[in-house]
Design goal:
- The complex is a heterodimer of chains A (331) and B (246).
- In chain A, helix 11 (300-308) packs antiparallel against helix 12 (317-330).
- With 331 residues, chain A is of the alpha/beta class.
- Chain A has helices at 54-62, 83-89, 105-113, 122-128, 144-156, 174-189, 201-207, 225-230, 248-252, 273-286, 300-308, 317-330; strands at residues 14-25, 28-39, 43-47, 69-74, 90-93, 162-166, 193-198, 210-215, 218-223, 236-242, 259-263, 266-271, 290-297.
- In chain A, strand 8 (210-215) and strand 9 (218-223) form a beta hairpin.
- Chain B has helices at residues 3-16, 19-36, 54-84, 87-91, 99-128, 136-160, 164-182, 193-199, 203-215, 222-242.
- In chain B, helix 3 runs antiparallel to helix 5 (99-128) and helix 9 (203-215) runs antiparallel to helix 10 (222-242).
- The interface between A and B is medium-sized, with 25 and 21 residues.
- Chain B: It is found in: Cell membrane; Membrane.
- Chain B: The chain crosses the membrane at residues 21-42, 57-79, 100-124, 136-160, 167-188, 222-243.
């Protein structure tokens, strides 16, 4: 359905290249032919449902796993055989990786600084991440969000050229999440390439230049967030309560409408911009007032659900879900 | 400061924050020696022991005890935990090899057991007048071999255990027979012949006997040193064969 779209206009060079990556655990494929290229200075997102193969993919990029087949190249290095060189230019935030419980935040930062030839100054870093008043706290006493922020600091402490963030803001409250996004944007502004694994659509939409949606070990789509949204089955939902009933034939004639529902006197139309114009024109022509008119654009959430829903399931499920939300809000 | 030195320093600091391990490795053997020495009959010469006192026999025993507690009981859960908690994984994304973390732990446990050995010998000498080993070099050699065997045994336990809990359980299960063979309950010299022959084939039974010989002023017999050395080879091989980084 979706094809790998190569951007013709790109000026940057690919700093991460993954080609035909395959990795199976006990005969069950986790990653089954994943290919993508990340340009230098880009924030590239990897989205996908749980167990889709996102983490395995980035672990192959980090050199923590050896692919069964396919190639991975990071800044011209082979992640496994050039691992020592790779670790100097790639910072990684991992899932499920703790620190020693009795190590304090300051000690962890000092220790990890000592690993790199030109470490970042961790003072400003901890300030941005809101860890300054936790420097003497032991790792085991930190909250989940504080641990997460420390992991982000450790991923950035070596002044990497590339940073891989697996579930960047999991466990963070909304304020900390926003602050972290700002930090990542600033990191990118300084020229760092960011590979971001997430299942927060809002995060991907906010941060990522391009996104690969991985489903069942394969790339289901690769595009900019807005490109993905525009490809959804119906990118816009129009909902309103007409002052008097509309003619079924008029509704059926709406252009580009994928579905029209009538519920408790409320009309919910799924379509696109063209449909919106047609609905407005129709209402004006019939001199009908639309009460509580709401027009909502599809989000990356909808695009994601579209892309990761099984072939057999109803394709309009995400749209129906959104429409249900709309009617609930209005009720 | 080099990265490995930073790791060692950091691990040393963490080690100092483990009062349990410090007590059992550094203090307990000397405390045990001091308590045993309070028993009057242990301080009188026994013709059945070639005129030695029981307390004389117990100095090498508690020295070995420190080594075995450090290697077999204290170290394995730390190593397994570092793998289980993903600490090794995190380190493998940095320019520092995770092996440096394991090396630091092995070095620290070795250092702690040597400290404990020195303290125990000092307590024996100063409090109960136990003579310092007459064949010092042979004694040191036997001590080093025993420490290597204990650390190799600990590394093997860590390699075979998937979780910290399993590691602690196997460590304790290995600790008690080790304590028996090194003579905590019954010094090796005092064991019946048949039992002694078996015990001398174990790493710590052989080391115990080698220490006794060196304490008495003889060069420890090569057969005892050889038995312990052979165990080191086997255990290091097993640890290397079965250790998993993840």
């Amino acid at each position: 359905m979706y094809t790998y779209r190569v951007r013709k206009d790109h000026l940057g060079m690919a700093i991460i290249e993954v080609n035909g990556l395959r990795k199976a655990y006990g005969g069950r494929p986790a990653v089954d032919g994943v290919s993508f290229a990340v340009e230098e200075g880009e924030i590239f997102g990897i989205l996908g449902p749980n167990g889709a193969g996102k983490t395995t993919t980035v672990e192959c990029v980090e050199g923590l796993r050896v692919p069964d087949s396919g190639t991975v190249s990071v800044a011209g290095l082979h992640p496994v055989s050039d691992h020592a060189q790779l670790t100097r230019i790639l910072g990684a935030q991992l899932q499920e990786s703790d620190l020693q419980a009795k190590l304090t935040v300051r000690e962890a930062l000092e220790l990890y600084s000592a690993f790199y030839p030109k470490p970042a100054d961790w003072g400003p870093l901890t300030e941005r991440l809101g860890l300054t008043d936790r420097l003497t706290t032991r790792f085991g006493k930190l909250s989940g969000g504080q641990k997460q922020r420390l992991f982000i600091a450790l991923a950035l402490i070596g002044n990497p050229r590339i940073v891989v963030l697996d579930e960047l803001t999991t466990g963070l409250d909304p304020r900390a999440r926003r602050d972290t996004w700002k930090l990542i944007e600033d990191v990118r502004a300084s020229g760092v390439t960011v590979l971001l694994v997430t299942h927060f659509m809002e995060e991907a939409q906010h941060l990522c230049d391009r996104v690969a949606v991985i489903n069942a070990g394969k790339v289901a789509a690769l595009d900019t967030p807005s490109g993905l949204i525009s490809k959804t089955a119906s990118s816009t939902v129009i909902a309103f309560t007409p002052s008097r009933p509309l003619d079924d034939a008029d509704l059926a004639a709406l252009p580009a409408a994928t579905s029209v529902e009538l519920k408790d006197g409320r009309v919910v139309v799924n379509g696109n911009d063209e449909t919106v114009n047609a609905v407005i024109a129709l209402l004006a022509r019939r001199q009908i007032t639309a009460e509580r008119l709401r027009v909502t654009d599809a989000t990356l959430d909808d695009a994601f659900l579209d892309l990761t829903t099984d072939e057999g399931a109803t394709p309009s499920e995400p749209v129906a879900h959104r429409a249900a939300n709309l009617t609930e809000q209005e009720a | 400061m080099s990265a490995s030195a930073a790791v060692l320093k950091s691990e040393a600091r963490l080690f100092s924050r483990e009062p349990g391990s410090l007590f059992w490795i550094v203090a307990f053997p000397s405390v045990l020696l001091a308590i045993l020495g309070l028993i009057p009959t242990f301080r009188t010469a026994d013709p059945g022991l070639d005129g030695l006192r029981v307390i004389d026999l117990y100095v090498p025993i508690v020295v070995l005890l420190a080594i075995v507690v450090a290697g077999v009981q204290a170290m394995p859960p730390v190593l397994t935990g570092y793998r289980e908690l993903g600490i090794l994984r995190r380190m493998s994304t940095t320019p520092v090899r995770p092996a440096s973390l394991l090396t630091a732990q092995i070095v620290l446990h070795a250092a702690a057991s040597v400290c404990s050995a020195v303290i125990a010998m000092a307590v024996g000498r100063l409090v109960y007048g136990v003579a310092l080993p007459a064949q010092l070099f042979g004694y040191a050699l036997a001590l080093v071999l025993a420490a290597l065997a204990a650390l190799a045994a600990g590394a093997t336990i860590a390699a075979l255990s998937r979780t910290t809990k399993i590691s602690t359980a196997i460590g304790s299960a290995v600790l008690f027979p080790s304590m028996f063979t090194l003579g905590v309950w019954l010094p090796v010299q005092a064991m019946p012949d048949a039992l002694q022959r078996v015990v001398l084939l174990t790493p710590f039974g052989a080391a115990s006997q080698a220490l006794n010989e060196a304490a008495a002023g003889d060069w420890p017999s090569w057969s005892h040193l050889g038995v312990t050395a052979l165990w080191i080879v086997i255990l290091v091989g097993a640890a290397a064969r079965w250790f998993r980084w993840e």
